[in-house]
Amino acid sequence: MQYMLQNQNETANPTHCLMADGVLFATGAAGYTVIELLWRGHTHWSMGIAGGICFTCFGRIWPKIKSLHKIYVPLLGSTVITSVELAFGVVFNLILKKGIWDYSHLPFQLFGQICGLFSTLWGLLSIPAVPLAGRLRQRLIDRTSAPHPHPAE
Question: What's the predicted TM-score (pTM) here?
Answer without folding.
Answer: 0.86
